[in-house]
Amino acid sequence: MTETLHADDPTATAERVRAILGDGPVLALTGAGVSTDSGIPDYRGPGSPPRNPMTYQQFVGDAAFRRHYWARNHVGWRHMERTECNDGHRALADLEAAGFVSAVVTQNVDTLHEAAGSRRVVDLHGRYDRVICLGCREITARSSLDVRLAELNPDFSVTVEDIELAPDADAALSSTEGFLVADCTECGGVLKPDIVYFGENVPKPRVEEVYALVEEAAGLLVAGSSLTVFSGRRFVKRAAQQGKPVVILNQGATRCDDLAALTVDAGCSQMLRALAGSYADPALMEATTPPSTRTSVPET
C-alpha cells in the first residue's frame, strides 16, 4: 500500500524518504516539475494550460509545420538560454556528491542538471541546445543555427515577455508567416532540434543505458514528473518489478502512484534540499562548487 505525505514538515518528510530509500545509491528520474522554479513551465502540473506539442509526424511530414516550429523556437530558445538552475537541481547534485544519487535521468531538455553540477546525467529526451540533421545525422550547436536564422530573418523580432513558453523552448506566436528555415550546411537535409518529439521513440541505446542504471540502483527517486508518458514510466515499472523501493515527489497525482512505497505531494526544490540536508556530508558539500554558468555543446 502506498503511503502519501504532503510535506508540511520538509525535514520530517525527508527523514521518511530516507527511511524508505536507505543509504542508496538510488537513481533519480526527473521531469518538468524540477525546473518550474527556474521559470520554465511544465506540461501537466497544477494550473498548467492545455498544451498540444508538435508531433514528430507533423514535423517531418509538413514544411509549414517546420516553419511554424522553428519560428517559435527562434524566440523560445533564447529564453531557455537565460534560465538558471534552481535549488532543486543543486540539491540533486549535492546528493550525487554525497553518494546517495548514482545518476540523474531527466525527461527535461533544459540542461540545468549539468549546470548545477550533476556529473552523471542521461538526457532521456535529448537537449534543447543541439540540432540534428535528419539526413546525414550531423549534430551542431543550436547557437550556431541561431546566427543563421537571424541572418535569414533580419526583420523577425519578438520579445519573450508575455509570451507563453513550453518546456521544450517552444513559444506561442500568433503568426509565423514568412519565416525562413535553414537546412543542413553539410547535406541540405532537414534540421530538427535534438529532442525526442511526441510520437518519436527514445533511441534504444539510451533506453538500455537507463535500464542498466535501474539495475545497479538500490531504489528510485522520481522528482517533478506526472509519469504520463511511457518513456519515463517504464523505468518506474522496472524498479517496482525488481522489488526496489520507489519514492515519488510531485505536485499532484502520477500514473505510478500505485507502484510507489511513498508519494510526496509537494514542490521539488524545498523537499530535495531537505533531503540533501539529511544525507549530505558537510565537508563534501563545502568542496563541491557547481559551475556558475550552464554547459553547452561546442560551436561547430
Quickly describe the structure.
This protein has 300 residues and is of the alpha/beta class. The protein has one domain: Rossmann fold, CATH 3.40.50. It is 36% helix and 15% strand.
What key phrases describe this protein's structure?
300 residues, alpha/beta, Rossmann fold, seven-stranded parallel beta sheet, 10 strands
Question: What is the CATH homology-level superfamily?
Answer: TPP-binding domain
Total helical segments:
10
Q: What percent of residues are in strands?
A: 15-25%
Strand order of the largest sheet: 1-10-9-8-2-3-4
Care to describe what's here?
There is one protein chain. Mean pLDDT is 87; it is low at 281-300. It is elongated and about 55 Å long. α4 (87-97) runs parallel beside α9 (268-279) and α7 (204-216) packs parallel to α8 (230-241). The chain has a seven-stranded parallel β-sheet with strand order 1-10-9-8-2-3-4, with helices on both faces. The protein has a three-stranded antiparallel β-sheet with strand order 6-5-7. The chain contains ten helices and ten strands. By secondary structure, the chain is of the alpha/beta class.
